[in-house]
Specification:
mainly alpha, single chain, 2 domains, 253 residues, rod-shaped, Helix Hairpins
């Protein structure tokens, strides 16, 4: 245990920064892989929702269509019933015995004639509505089929990306774990907190043209010198990211 503590103390700040930057590179690679396929699952989920919505819409239209068919059948039955009554009343008119009976039968014929006209009008309305619903079903079904094709393409694309990147991600993740294990936990905790709050997931950034590589605010010359010396961990006073000299990070400015 004593040996371990002694070794930890011997690791310079510069070496810790270099190792932390290496960890950042691995984590950024994982972020890029996840971003690459991160949008596709959302697109697939959206398409699933759209397909479900269109399916519900088509089902509702089909129920409306059945209702229109039932309404048309009902009106046709009314017409047939009224025609049968008129025929019966006309037969009775041939054998009327008085004016009162004649007037009554005539009114009944007129009433049933109006009933036929009303039923025919409603039949035309229901038939028109039926045509509109059929057109809506065709349109929604076409959209549904189109979305299903899109979903098949997106799902295949997602499956391909997952199969291509999963193994690579696991390898990078293992490397990141090994690197992380070599850094003191307190520094890793601080780094992860900074990284979590950073919009682009960068917890440690190199200086770029005298500015912070995360928020691009200018760094005073003396502070730049301190970062270049790599004797202590310095964070940006604007964005809170840990800053590292490009040379220490092993990159060209």
């Amino acid at each position: 245990m004593a040996t371990k503590k002694r070794k930890t103390k011997e690791i310079s700040v510069e070496e810790r920064l270099r190792t932390l930057y290496k960890l950042q590179m691995y984590l950024s690679d994982i972020d890029r892989i996840r971003t690459l396929r991160g949008e596709l699952p959302l697109e697939v989920a959206d398409l699933d929702d759209e397909i479900a919505g269109l399916g519900t819409r088509v089902s509702k239209f089909e129920l409306d269509l059945k209702e229109m068919e039932a309404n048309i059948t009902q009106q046709k039955m009314k017409i047939e019933t009224s025609k049968a009554k008129i025929e019966r009343y006309n037969t009775q008119l041939e054998n009327v015995r008085n004016n009162k009976e004649f007037d009554h039968l005539t009114k009944e014929v007129e009433f049933e004639t109006l009933e036929i006209e009303l039923a025919e009008k409603r039949t035309r309305e229901f038939t028109q509505k039926q045509k509109e619903i059929k057109a809506q079903i065709e349109e929604a079904t076409a959209q549904l089929n189109e979305k299903k094709i899109d979903l098949d393409h997106k799902q295949k694309e997602l499956d391909d990306i997952i199969s291509e990147t999963k193994a690579n991600e696991e390898k990078i993740r293992e490397k990141a774990k090994k690197v992380e294990a070599s850094i003191e936990p307190r520094l890793v905790t601080a780094f992860r907190r900074i990284r979590k709050n950073a919009r682009n997931g960068l917890g440690i950034v190199p200086i770029q043209r005298g500015a912070c590589g995360g928020c691009f605010n200018k760094i005073p010359p003396q502070r730049q010198m301190d970062i270049k010396l790599g004797k202590k961990v310095i964070v940006c006073e604007y964005c809170g990211r840990i800053m590292i000299d490009p040379e220490i990070a092993g990159i060209k400015e």
